[in-house]
Amino acid sequence: MSKRITLGCAAFVLCGHAAWAHAQTTTAATPTPARAADTAAQGNRLVMAENESFLLPLDDRKNVHPTYPQNLLGQHLPPRTVCLRVGIDEKGAVIAVAKAPASEFCVPDAEPEFLAASEMAARTWKFDPALRCVFRNVQDKERAHASCDGGKSIPQAVTLVYRIRFDQVDGQPTVHVIGG
């Protein structure tokens, strides 16, 4: 499993390597998969109190990277990057996969085969869910340091953005997944 990142800010947004996460803001105790998918698609932001922190979901080490499309190998294309929004429900299951909006990191001109390979792989990914950690007070939150120890952990649905870079090095395909 990957290292968890904890955030203890009032409004949660993670922007690094073109990745950000938006946790579900609904007040329902047990959100439905449809509501979690809506939240993942809409990108609602989680607002936290001073005594709360947030842990990003952990990706399963068995999650496979997309494969370089065979029909494009002979074209010796320059590196291509595809960006995906991946909606993850409060159980850690992928519930939505879509092309992310264009940005400085996500150019819209990659061949459709790269997007299709990326989406197909992302739909198979699994995660330990994101957690909202609620503590009795700020001091308990600070003592927990990157965990929910001593507080209540509440699984959260999130949307993460991944950059997937397809490249060829000496004629050999390579694929790098960045973000999350």
Automatic annotation (TrEMBL):
Domain of life where this protein originates: Bacteria
Signal peptide: 1-23
Keyword terms, alphabetized: Signal
Protein name: TonB C-terminal domain-containing protein
